[in-house]
Specification:
This protein is an alpha/beta fold. It is 45% helix and 18% strand. It starts with a strand and ends with a helix. The relative contact order is 0.14.
Length: 335
């Protein structure tokens, strides 16, 4: 059983410099503790993401850690200049000494596309073209490309990734697309939904349409959830009833401002529903072990990414929760 960390890096009181330093300290601790990967999200124009340039933050993290893998989840490809991104990915792979994972996506928020001056209706098309360019540029030192949004002739790229043929690609949220192209993925939801997603993903892997991860022997499917641990169950529950609605408010800002319907992964900030469905754990370490054991037995999941820093949890609360997990929960699953 492997554990990872998923992070939006929501704004908190205090300066950005303090927030970044706190998160880097958290990563140093996670590195020593044996977490497999740190996955950084990307969002713009909202308090959900204080580090929307994930490549910049991961570059800093690469110099403060030694073992933990570092990845985007995801780079919003429609907002990037593909050739520059290829160069940055190569740089990051070398800065991290081959620990880079590359998650990609088109972005779930139409408002973000509009605010970037892009048409949300063309997001899928722009994503597919940018992703093709990223794969092509990482695999070839010279190439030409002609698409609807980008035209390049006889490009020569001296930068090469350290990992060959390139770092692993991830595509979360759509196990069908991921499986058909042999991409690593992350899913979420109640155990039954995770179980079904894993089954479908593995079915698609049996006869994929394409192999976009030639360097990955066995594509990974993981699940993600929010967690907060305390020495008492009552203390954990009391705290998440404040923190989870705060996370919800940070998540839905643009959707509500621009009256955009969407499927809300934060369940409207309904803490009781999140606990009931198992997308949030608020517990003692002993209770957390029971709940994770149940998730494993119901789904067969082998990789679990956890959000430890979210909502209005302070850095100290996050670290206390993380330390309980590392000291009392992780050893149980690594025996």
């Amino acid at each position: 059983m492997r554990f990872g960390i998923f992070d939006h890096m929501e704004f908190r009181s205090g300066s950005l410099a303090e927030l970044y330093e706190e998160r880097l300290c958290m990563l140093e601790f996670a590195d020593e503790a044996g977490f497999w990967c740190y996955h950084k999200a990307e969002h713009h124009f909202i308090r959900l993401d204080a580090a929307p340039s994930g490549t910049v933050f991961l570059a800093a993290a690469s110099q403060r850690t030694e073992r933990i893998r570092l990845g985007s989840l995801v780079l919003l490809l429609p907002f990037y200049e593909p050739l520059r991104l290829i160069e940055e990915v190569c740089m990051l792979d070398h800065l991290s000494k081959g620990r880079l994972e590359i998650g990609v996506g088109k972005g779930i928020s139409p408002a973000e596309h509009t605010l970037w001056g892009k048409d949300p209706e063309t997001a899928r098309e722009r994503f597919e073209e940018a992703f093709e360019l990223l794969r092509t540029g990482l695999a070839n030192t010279t190439f030409s490309y002609s698409g609807k949004n980008h035209v390049f002739g006889n490009i020569s790229l001296p930068h090469r990734p350290l990992q060959q043929p390139h770092p692993g690609f991830w595509y979360p949220g759509n196990v069908d697309y991921a499986g058909r192209h042999r991409l690593n993925t992350i899913t979420a939801g109640p155990p039954e939904a995770i179980k079904n997603a894993i089954a479908h993903f593995r079915t698609q892997l049996d006869q994929p349409d394409a192999d976009w991860n030639p360097g990955v022997a066995d594509p990974v499917i993981g699940a993600t959830l929010h967690i907060y641990l305390d020495s008492s169950k009552q203390g954990a529950l009391a705290r998440v009833h404040q923190a989870y609605p705060a996370y919800h408010r940070n998540l839905v800002t643009l959707f509500e401002r621009y009256d955009i319907p969407f499927t809300d992964p934060s369940l409207g900030g309904n803490t009781e529903l999140a606990l009931q469905l198992g997308v949030l754990i608020a517990a003692t370490p002993e209770n957390a072990i029971e709940q994770i054991e149940h998730l494993i037995s119901e789904t067969g999941i082998e990789y679990l990414t956890l959000s430890f820093a979210w909502g209005d949890l302070t850095h100290q609360e996050t670290m206390d929760s993380l330390q309980l997990f590392v000291q009392e929960v992780m050893p149980y699953f690594q025996r």
